[in-house]
Structures are given as C-alpha cells and as structure tokens.
Amino acid sequence: MTKQLEYLDKLKQLRKDAPKPFGLYSATCIGLDGGLGYYLQNFQDSNFIDFSSGLKAYRNTDYVPQRTPCKLVKQKGRVKLFEYSEQGDPILLVPSMVNKNYIFDLYEDNSFIKHLISEGYRPYIIDWDEPYEDSEKINLQSLVEDYILYFSEFLNNELNEKIHLLGYCMGGVFTLISALKQQNLYKSLTLVATPFDFNEMPFTGMMKFYKSFNLEYLKTSNVSAEVIQSLFFMLDCKGVLSRIKKFAKIKNEEQMKRMVALEDWLSDCIDFENTMAVDILNLWYGENRIYHEELDYSKFKLKTYLVTASNDGIVPRKSSLPLLDKITNVEHMPVRSGHVGIMAGRRSIDDFYKKISKKLKNI
User: Fold this and answer.
1) How many beta carbons lie within 10 A of that of residue 7, not counting itself?
2) Domain shared by 246 and 143, yes or no
3) Are strands 121-127 and 79-83 parallel, antiparallel or unpaired?
4) Residue 23 lies in a domain
5) Rounded distance, CA 75 to CA 150, Å?
6) Which pTM value belongs to this model?
7) Which domain holds residue 152?
C-alpha cells in the first residue's frame, strides 16, 4: 500500500512539473504567436492559450497506468534486474539511459512485455535507476562490463541457457557492444532504432561545435533532465506543442489514456551521468566510434535483427543501416512508424511485436 501511494505521489508530481523546462515551451508559444505584443492583443487566439489549456487537461487527469507485475531478481549498486515471468524463453531488454524502461510496457492493451509473455517468452528488463549523491559513477565501459554482461552471465548461470538480447535506442548500442564482446552468452541480438553512424544523427553538428564547452561543463555536472528535454523539444517544437494542445480537445477516454501514458513517459526524463556523457561525447559524436576499444565484427556470427523506423526523427534510419554492412548474419526489419511508435505505436503489435517474436522462436 505504501509503495502504491509513493507511486501515485510521484506520478502527480511528474505531471505537475511537466513539461520541462516550462519556460522554453511557453516562450516558444509566444514567439510562434508573433511575440509578446501580438499575444497580448490576441489573447483568446494564441498558441500559448491553447498550450496552457492542453497542459491543464493533462495535469488534471486522474488516470494511473497499470504496469505488468514484476519482481526484482538481481541488483548491483543502483542498477536492477527485473523478471516478468517465471517460465519461457528468456529475453533481456535493455532500455536507453535517458528515459525510463517502461517504454516496453507503456500501454495496458499494447505492451511489448505482455506480448512477449503471451508468446511464451520470459522477459527481463534492466533498470538503470537515477544517479544520486554518493552512487557509483557509470561510464560506457562499466555499463557494458559491470552491468549488462554481469546480468547476462547471471541469467545464463541461473537458467542454464543462453538468452535473447534486445536493445532499444541508446540501449541498442549498449547491447551491440555487449554481444560483440561475449556473443557466447546470447541466442540472438535485436537492435531497435539503434544509432551507429553518428555523423547521421540530428545533434552531431551541435555536439561537435560545443564539444570543448560541454566537456568543461561535464567535469562537475550531470546533464540535467531539463537540458535533455530541451534538445528533444528543439527537434520538433511545433509538433511537441501540438501534442500538448491536443489534450484539451480529446473527448474519447481511451485515446486520452494513451496520450497521458505517453506524455508521462516522455516527461519522466532523468539526469544523465556526466561520466557517461563524456564517453558518448568523445566516442560517439567526436570519433564516430561506439566503444573505446576495437570490436571484432569479423568473428561475430550471432543472428541479429536490425529494426528501423521509417519516420524516425531521433535516430534516422540512415544512422542504423551501415550495420547491415558490418554484421554478417543480420536481417533488416523496417517498420512504418516513428521512433517511439516502433515500440509503442498503434501498429507496433502487427508491424513489430508479432514479427520479432515469431523470428526469435525459429532460433
């Protein structure tokens, strides 16, 4: 009961604080209205009023998404491993470190976790948790070797079998590195919306231009959730504002629930650890390399599925496709969706869930 109350309080606070940073959203609305003078003269017909109405509707919702039950089976430091079923073909899901892992279980009627269980799989998910004072510092090497490979070896020993490995977004890069280092732990590798050629990523130019400044900043500070949210907002500010405005117009209860669940996840961004950010800035965006040491693709024979989205504005398809030339035993699975839709869109069940679960059964 106490945990449920804590969850409800946290959810209420999350919605109260959304979106972050509020000033950026508000200023953009007023700018799109033509500036403060125009906004004051046309108060009843403005982006800012529509945005405020939508935000109020979102914040006032009392919908509480129900997550699939799970249990903690292993923990190392602040990083946790959760199990969602006690039987079936094991599969380890690795999320990004920027957003929370419940992207795999976002909707009650459209959950990748629920689908996997229904198809006879035994899902496990890594929870990176949030950096806090005195918590262990995680960098790219420790994330791969001390956590993903550690949990993978634990599952191999506990279950006495190899596991499927699936990574989403940034988590896909982590799983690729892990599989290249110890492919003997895995039955298959699935990379979903995974960046590889960082010269094709939307923030690369900015990251390189401000590299020296960012590295200096990262000596003492993590990358705040507000900064991360601002970067995503800059990719499509009108689209983001339109999404929030829509809350005030929705009458269908089920559609409102889906929108709320998605907005909760998008808003539930966490601070990004400076040690990890330095590695990513230097390696991924600086040198266009995914790891600090050379990885041998020539000996990599693990069956791999590369899943890309046709309308991905966060990880463009052309950033992922060079992997088709690097990995020998790879199959491309294009999906008609955007970055989030590939994992939790209206077509994801037919276009992704069913297809990948069927393919993995044949391994």
Assistant:
1) 12
2) no
3) antiparallel
4) yes
5) 10
6) 0.92
7) 71-202+273-361
